[in-house]
Amino acid sequence: MNDRRTLARNQFESTVIDADTDRRIYETFRHFWHPVARSSDVDADPVQAELCDQQLVIVRLDGGVRAFNDLCAHRGTALSLGAVTAEGTRLRCAYHGWQYDGTGRCRLVPQAPDLADKLDISVRAYSAEERYGLIWVCLEDEPLAPIPDFPQFSDPDYYWVEFPVVDWNCAAARRIENYTDVSHFAFVHDGWLGDINHPEINSYKVWRDGMTLCMMEDEPVLQPARLSKWSEVDTDSEFVEVTNMRTISMPLAVRLDISAGTSSFSQFFCATPLGPDRTRNFTVVARNFGEPGTAFKDHAVLNMTVYEQDRPVVESQRPNAVPQDLAAELHIRGVDLYSLEYRLWLREIVSQLEQSRGETISEPG
């Protein structure tokens, strides 16, 4: 009986530690830039967005993009229901017409015009930037890293296409591991990205460069030339020889740089954490070959099929979050090196942030 009680207590304590570690990892995401909307989705009207359980309003004021807490200081109405006024300089609440400027400060209370000047009334403003056709937000005043690099987006030799935005019921870090894992291709994407009769993968190298975790396969891989993403490549062969470079910009952005000869495309992906177990998928592709009119079909349509093949698998994973105890799941030497290095770096980020706060750190085994 005592042994059973001890086992039950140990299992309970282990669950509590795992949940605490998951929470700590999730909370660090507030300190990084994440896309919350596509630029094309934010025009003259405010738009509601979400990041790390924080409801936001995204709006264009004074010629730039702004992000505020989606909550009017008066009666808690969502500011995203409002409208832009005063020649594009203020956001007006839909309920009682209070107006806020680009800093979040209230500049007009219509029912009492002198009140705004007498009181310091503001809504919380967040850092916001527009880059790569996406609206980026950081919830903390001092981001731990810059917005990830995507140089092909502005390269004159490339043109770009954006994918539809989709939400998954999974942790963002699980989605990043899925996006960079090649050993599942043969089974989840048989006939698309892999061959179930040949599940072996090439050896590869992993290294850090600044705030990025890089992975390069030692040998090129063969992909069917009939795949839509290569349909614009001039070849008579059944297969095209492809080189792959994967780069994770810590913690939740991935760039796949893929080349077949002189034909190249870069697939930029971000897993935005809406909450601990909800993730929004943003993808932009830039390529230097083919016709712009076929890019959406060649890349977005193909990849949305691949995404839907992945979705039920990733959403089924338990625990929902990536375990930070490396002994919690089994790993294959070499095959799982990239995900192991990713998990180690996530742990380091948590530790570094807690050390900067002077908090007590308890690392999992």
Structure write-up:
- With 365 residues, this protein is an alpha+beta fold.
- The protein folds into 2 domains: 105 residues, Rieske [2Fe-2S] iron-sulphur domain (Rieske Iron-sulfur Protein); 202 residues, Naphthalene 1,2-dioxygenase Alpha Subunit, Chain A, domain 1, CATH 3.90.380.10.
- It is built from 6 helices and 19 strands.
- Strands 11, 12, 13, 14, 15, 16, 17, 18 and 19 form a 9-stranded antiparallel sheet that branches. Strands 1-10-9-4-3-2 form a 6-stranded antiparallel sheet, with no helix packed on it.
- A hairpin with a 5-residue loop joins strand 7 and strand 8.
- The longest helix has 27 residues.
- The protein is globular and about 75 Å long.
- It starts with a helix and ends in an 8-residue tail after the last helix.
- The C terminus is likely disordered.
Main β-sheet: number of strands, strand sense, barrel status? 9 strands, antiparallel
- Low-confidence residue ranges: 6-17, 361-365
Query: What is the CA-atom radius of gyration, in angstroms?
Result: 23 Å
What is the CATH T-level topology of the largest domain?
Naphthalene 1,2-dioxygenase Alpha Subunit, Chain A, domain 1
Count of individual domains? 2
User: What is the count of β-strands?
Assistant: 19
Q: Estimate the mean pLDDT confidence.
A: 90
Order of helices and strands: HEEEEEEEEHEEEEHHEEEEEEEHH
| Strand fraction | 25-35%
Structural class: alpha+beta
Specify the CATH class of the largest domain.
Answer: Alpha Beta
C-alpha geometry:
globular
CATH architecture classification of the largest domain: Alpha-Beta Complex
Fraction of residues in helix: 10-25%
CATH superfamily membership of the largest domain, which one?
Answer: Naphthalene 1,2-dioxygenase Alpha Subunit, Chain A, domain 1
Q: Helix segment count?
A: 6
Span between N and C termini?
28 Å
